[in-house]
Design brief:
The protein is mainly alpha-helical and 94 residues long. It is built from four helices and no strands. The longest helix is centred in the C-terminal third of the chain and has 26 residues. It starts with a helix and ends with a helix. 0% of the residues are buried.
């Protein structure tokens, strides 16, 4: 279990370093930046959301993605199965 945690920690640290090292300005061109609302300038290409409904849909999708990420990390670190015959023990013991 400790090896798995160390591997996850190393991968997360590498991802964070790569994301922090990427300049945000490189993600959108000047024309797209002018067409975006203030909240999204410099982040994405295209025209941006057309109405407030688009922003609500994006917010709901972001919440779903965040909850999914939290639950998957939780169940990866502490799955809660204690039965000795559970299939996860095949992976954990090797």
């Amino acid at each position: 279990m400790k090896k798995l945690f160390n591997a996850i920690q190393t991968a997360a640290t590498t991802w964070i370093i790569l994301m922090l090292g990427t300049p945000v300005a490189a993600l959108a061109c000047d024309v797209c930046e002018k067409n975006q609302p203030k909240a999204l300038r410099g982040i994405s290409h295209g025209t941006g959301p057309d109405s407030q409904w688009d922003m609500i849909i994006i917010a709901i999708a972001a919440v779903i993605v965040l909850l999914t990420l939290i639950w998957s990390v939780r169940y990866l670190v502490r799955p809660g199965e204690t039965a000795p015959g559970h299939i996860k023990n095949i992976v954990v013991e090797k």
